[in-house]
């Protein structure tokens, strides 16, 4: 005999107000130097994103995107026009 168990996660900000709303998102925040997670509904997630800026992990190296200069773009355009003329 097989029994299925369903577990529902409820939105923690709504649970404080003694409301049961199913959680579909996770809110991350920093507290006492550690990253914590709270289950939240999509409405609370949007509200949190509007109030606070997202966490950035500074322990990982940040890759800078290379900017292409206008000189390189002009050279690329010149080579395309000479190829099409031939």
UniProtKB/TrEMBL annotation:
Organism of origin: Nocardiopsis sediminis
Annotated protein name in UniProt: DUF3039 domain-containing protein
Ranges for region Disordered: 65-86
């Amino acid at each position: 005999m097989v029994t299925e168990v369903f577990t529902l996660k409820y939105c923690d900000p709504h649970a404080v107000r003694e409301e049961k709303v199913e959680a579909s998102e996770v809110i991350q925040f920093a507290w006492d130097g550690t990253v914590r997670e709270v289950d939240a509904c999509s409405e609370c997630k949007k509200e949190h994103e509007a109030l606070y800026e997202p966490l950035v992990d500074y322990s990982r190296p940040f890759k800078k995107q290379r900017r292409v200069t206008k000189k390189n773009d002009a050279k690329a355009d010149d080579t395309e026009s000479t190829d099409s003329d031939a």
